[in-house]
Amino acid sequence: MDGFQVRFCGEGYELKDFLKFHPGGINYLSGYKDKDVGLRMESTQHSQSAFYLLREYREGGRNIEMFKENEDLEYLVNWNEPMLKQVSNLGTKYSEWVHSPVNRKLRIFENPFLESLTITPWYFVPIVWIPIILYYIHKGHQTYSNIHKESNSVIWSVIYLSVGVVMWTLLEYSLHRWVFHLVPSGKSRALICLHFTIHGLHHKVPFDTRRLVFPPIPAIFILVLGHTLLSSIIPKSMIHLLLGGIISGYLIYDMIHFYLHYGTPDIGGYLYNMKRIHNQHHFTHHDAAFGISSNCWDKLFGTIIYLRKLGMGIKWN
C-alpha cells in the first residue's frame, strides 16, 4: 500500500504504519481512506487515548504547540534522551502521560549494557525457558518418584504441573492488577521509576516489539528468589513440578501477550476475543481485563470486559 491518508480537523494524517495496530482492524478503517474521520471517531466514542495517539501520525509530524490547548503531554519529556531519568520529574502528570500512548521506540537507560538487558526479541524467551522447564519437569518427576515410590507417579507429576499452571494464571492476574497498575502518587519519584520500568513503559509505547516480553535476565533472578522462598514452605517432592508448571504458564502468557499485539487471530476464536479485550485494556479500560492468557480471574473478581457485538468480524491483516 502506497499510503493511507485521512483528514481530521482540517489536518492530514498518514495511517499506513498504524493499520496493523488499529483495534478495529483494517476492514473497519479501509472505507475512510482520504476522508475525514472526526465524526466517525466521535460517534463511536473513541477513547481519549485514541485521539491522543492519532497525533503521532499527523503529516509533517506531531505539533506540540498546536495541541497544547488539548493537553499534549509530550512537551514534558525529551524523546532523544533516556526516559528513566525523566519520568520521576513528571510528578502528578505521570499517570496521565504514561496512559497516553505514542508509536515510538523508547530508550530507558543511558548505559548501553543496561539498555541491552531491557530489549528482548520474542523468540529469545522460548529459547531460554523451554530447557529450564524441561529440567524442572524431569527433576520434579524424578524426585517425586524417588520419595513416594508409587506406580502412578506420572499421573501425580501431571497433576502438580497442572496446578502450577493454574497458580501462574492467578499470579499473572494479581501482579497485573495490584502491582503493575498500582500507579504511584506524584510524590514518590522512586515508585514512579519502578512502575515505569516494570509496566508503565508498555502502556506508553504499546507497539514497541522489543518490549512486549519480559527480559530473561531479570526473570531468572526472580525465579531463583521464588524457588528459594517456595522451597521453605512446599514439600521437596512437589517444588520442582509446581515451579515447572508456573514457568510453563509464564511462557504461555508471554507468547500470547506478544501474539495479542502482533498476531492476526481468526475471527471468533479464543485469541480473537482476547485480542479485542486486550486492546480495550490498553486504550479504554486500564482498570479492567488484567488476564492475558486467561480471563477466568477477571470473571471471578468482576474486572471482565464484555465485548459488544459487531456487524462484521475484525481483520487485522
TrEMBL record:
Membrane topology: Multi-pass membrane protein
Pathway assigned to this chain's UniProt record: Sphingolipid metabolism; Lipid metabolism
E.C. designation(s): 1.-.-.-
InterPro entries: Cyt_B5-like_heme/steroid-bd (IPR001199), Cyt_B5-like_heme/steroid_sf (IPR036400), Cyt_B5_heme-BS (IPR018506), Fatty_acid_hydroxylase (IPR006694), Scs7 (IPR014430)
Source organism superkingdom: Eukaryota
Transmembrane segments: 113-137, 153-171, 212-233, 239-260
Keywords: Endoplasmic reticulum, Fatty acid biosynthesis, Fatty acid metabolism, Heme, Iron, Lipid biosynthesis, Lipid metabolism, Membrane, Metal-binding, Oxidoreductase, Transmembrane, Transmembrane helix, Zinc
Name listed for the protein in its UniProt record: Fatty acid 2-hydroxylase
One Pfam family it belongs to: FA_hydroxylase
UniProt family annotation: Belongs to the sterol desaturase family. SCS7 subfamily.
Record lineage: Eukaryota, Metazoa, Ecdysozoa, Arthropoda, Hexapoda
Function according to Swiss-Prot or TrEMBL: Plays an essential role in the synthesis of galactosphingolipids of the myelin sheath. Responsible for the synthesis of sphingolipids and glycosphingolipids involved in the formation of epidermal lamellar bodies critical for skin permeability barrier.
